């Protein structure tokens, strides 16, 4: 039997999850990505591995999905998860939502334990300062970049591939059937043939869908997040209230991330963070962790969620965090074209499995999904540079010998977290650019260096006060001195 081939659009968690699921069924999966792996929403989130507690009242389906899939993730990707646990902290006198939350967590199968206030205040005083009651849940921290690279390795192990720098611009048809896509790679156009096509482009799935000739019911939602230097909290801290802006802190590496806002955003592209949103986030976070006002912000960043559209939801907070699969054959008469939208990072595997079921059924492939028990091929574990290697990025401990391959600054940022530490590239970006030039045999990539510095600067500018203002001034003077732009 001829091996079937499927093109998956988008190399985020969802697209790679779909690709891996298809590949394990014996279907050749080619994931095409306009930029680099993790360049979109999957690389722009607060890092929460969801227990489901955040949705126990407002979105029971998503809560139950998160609870089940987090248990699976602990088995198949243990190296990408940090089991910090999480707290839900109630600060108000009104216990009505708390009671609804306790019923919802029980219904979703989420483990909950009350933490006595004296214990909470002794363990994490910053998080319990205003607490009326505190509950523990099995939240954790997800190392998204590590898991993304692990999924790429797993996909290739089963005969699939990822084509980065490949922007989809059109659909190839054979009559009423999808037969591949046309992608732009630099200044050339290439046809990638396939027996089916899956649109997993996240918040851009609507844009991609229109290029393919099919509308996708996605409702992009824009959010701002704030990174603080130093790991001030040892576990995830949620505000026990109806989900709202600025209601969660997630420890991540040596930092803490405060999230997030939720604003409708039809464009699908992430916007730069603003100082107004940063100031608002800090004040919202101070409602339940008051000392956040004294913490040093390192940078802000933004992301866009691909929520499932629902005109009756009354705004982004009312939209479900579950997912839906669109069969454009049944809906629009284009057989073999599918879209997957919505969901959470934590449920990427489930989304891949259910999309794989739909595609396999269309292709008449009977092999079942194998991803529930398939251990993801481990990616590099971040750590200090080996003593035999010159350290190029001091903040993240990235050594010269680790930076190999095509010499892409953006790729190194994703794979090794280079430039993502406290200095935000101020002291290391030029060394990384020199290493890239060394590997490619070309001149120092001034354009790539400028682009990297500009991307880092957008996040620093939004928090440019105190120590960060001084760091930003130093970076600007450095750029002026070396002629790297303003």
Automatic annotation (TrEMBL):
Gene3D superfamilies: BFD-like [2Fe-2S]-binding domain, FAD/NAD(P)-binding domain. The keyword Flavoprotein applies. Keywords: FAD, Flavoprotein, Oxidoreductase. One of its GO terms (molecular function) is glycerol-3-phosphate dehydrogenase (quinone) activity. Pfam families: DAO (PF01266). Residues 5-348 form the FAD dependent oxidoreductase domain. InterPro entries: BFD-like_2Fe2S-bd_dom_sf (IPR041854), FAD-dep_OxRdtase (IPR006076), FAD/NAD-bd_sf (IPR036188), G3P_DH_FAD-dep (IPR000447). Its cofactor is FAD. One of its GO terms (biological process) is glycerol-3-phosphate metabolic process. It comes from the Bacteria. Belongs to the FAD-dependent glycerol-3-phosphate dehydrogenase family. This is FAD dependent oxidoreductase.
């Amino acid at each position: 039997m001829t091996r079937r081939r499927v093109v998956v659009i988008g190399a985020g968690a969802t697209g790679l999850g779909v690709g891996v699921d298809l590949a394990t069924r014996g279907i050749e999966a080619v994931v095409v990505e306009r930029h680099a792996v993790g360049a979109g929403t999957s690389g722009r989130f607060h890092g929460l591995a969801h227990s489901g507690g955040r949705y126990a009242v407002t979105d029971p389906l998503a809560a139950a999905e998160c609870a089940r899939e987090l248990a699976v993730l602990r088995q198949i990707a243990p190296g990408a998860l940090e089991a910090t646990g999480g707290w839900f902290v109630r600060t108000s006198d009104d216990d009505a939502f708390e009671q609804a939350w306790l019923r919802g967590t029980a219904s979703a199968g989420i483990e909950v334990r009350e933490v006595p206030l004296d214990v909470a205040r002794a363990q994490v005083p910053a998080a319990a300062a205003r607490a009326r009651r505190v509950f523990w849940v099995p939240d954790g921290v997800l190392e998204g970049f590590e898991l993304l690279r692990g999924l790429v390795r797993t996909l290739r192990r089963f005969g699939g591939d990822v084509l980065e720098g490949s922007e989809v611009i059109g659909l190839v048809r054979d009559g009423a059937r999808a037969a591949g896509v046309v992608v732009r790679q630099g200044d050339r156009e290439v046809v990638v043939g396939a027996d089916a096509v899956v649109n997993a482009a996240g918040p851009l799935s609507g844009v991609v869908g229109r290029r393919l000739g099919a509308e996708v019911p996605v409702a992009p939602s824009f959010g701002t997040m704030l990174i603080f230097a130093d790991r001030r909290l040892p576990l995830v801290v949620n505000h026990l209230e109806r989900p709202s802006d600025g209601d969660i802190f997630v420890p991540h590496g040596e930092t803490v991330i405060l999230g997030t806002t939720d604003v409708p955003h039809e464009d699908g592209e992430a916007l730069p963070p603003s100082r107004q949103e940063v100031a608002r986030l800090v004040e919202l976070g101070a409602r339940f962790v008051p000392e956040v006002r004294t913490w040093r912000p390192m940078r802000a960043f933004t992301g866009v969620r691909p929520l499932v559209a629902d005109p009756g939801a009354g705004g982004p907070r009312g939209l479900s965090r579950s997912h839906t699969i669109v069969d454009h054959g049944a809906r629009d008469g284009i057989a073999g074209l599918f879209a997957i939208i919505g969901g959470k990072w934590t449920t990427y595997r489930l989304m891949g499995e259910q999309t794989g079921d739909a595609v396999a059924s269309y292709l008449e492939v009977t092999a079942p999904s194998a991803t529930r028990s398939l251990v993801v091929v481990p990616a590099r574990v971040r750590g200090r540079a080996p003593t035999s290697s010159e350290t190029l990025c001091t903040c993240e401990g990235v050594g010269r010998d680790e930076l190999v391959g095509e010499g892409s600054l953006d790729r190194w940022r994703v794979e090794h977290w280079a430039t993502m530490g406290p200095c935000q590239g101020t002291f290391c970006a030029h060394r990384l650019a020199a290493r890239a030039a060394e590997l490619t045999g070309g001149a120092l990539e001034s354009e790539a260096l400028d682009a990297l510095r500009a991307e880092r600067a957008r996040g620093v500018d939004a928090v440019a006060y105190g120590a960060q203002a001084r760091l930003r001034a130093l970076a600007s003077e450095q750029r002026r001195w070396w002629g790297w732009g303003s």
